[in-house]
Amino acid sequence: MGALAATPAAESLAELEALRHGLAAATGYSEWAQVVADYGHDFYVASPAQLVEQLRGDLTVLQHQLAAAPADRTLLRAAGSLSVVMTMALSATGQNTMARRWWRTARTHADQSGCTDTRVWVRNWEVVNGTYERRPIREILDRADEATAIAGDRACVGHAGVLAGRAQALAVAGQTESALKAVQATAAMTDRMPAEAMRDTASMFGWPEVRLRHTESYVYTHLGHTQQALAAQDRALELYPADLGRERAQMLMHRASCLIQDGHIGDGLRYAADVLDALPQSDHNALLYEVATAVVTQVPEQDLRRVEVVELRQRLAELPSG
Question: Domain range for residue 73?
Fold first, then answer.
């Protein structure tokens, strides 16, 4: 770590982290678990660009530590988890090709760690994010099956996320019966979730009730079960923490889609536009725009020339920088 900190070409953040971790190593102290936990919260409040820049420093340090201790399970778990945060940040900026590479990195390090919870948690986010990245449904479902086999009957955040992501993929594929069964399985897993995970409302490592309701909203909306979707959305709106504005906005796009499916085309399109207007521009990202684009696909062909459709498409054509 001392050599890294002294390297002139090192990134400034990497230099600072190298110094800090070097001090910790001198006393036999490691805080990688806390670093990972911090990123679990930062993911919901920091911009993707900020996350990528911060991770650049931390992962540079972690790379050097792993080179010195390649079998250290603590370091491997940290590498797998931080790679997920990097992947999600890249995906949020629309860099899906690069994200796909980081998913492989995340799985590899998680598997090398031998930690079941980490292995399942990494695959959880890959499955959940699969439809937003427009990955093949079969590929998403295969990854979900792989994660389920690893988890067994384990009740953990990763397992609940895998079930939720599976339900979403099946709904997008139009497999109604299977999607509904997957939602039921997600609810059953939520009932088994440890209390600590249920209380964690603002971290990637939590599974609060609002994540179940968001999943229900997603699935019912894609299946055209609008009344059930609206009920799930109402409950989610009661639960969403203020810090999760981007995720709340994604779910509100489901409501816009439901309005259009119920024949209120103009209202649905205006609702989608209002959701974008209400969210700070700095919180707009590729994941939100992917859900908003799905709203447009619900508009009947004879209405595609409406002014509201044209304007919404123009807004979604280019992701804001930052």
Answer: 1-114
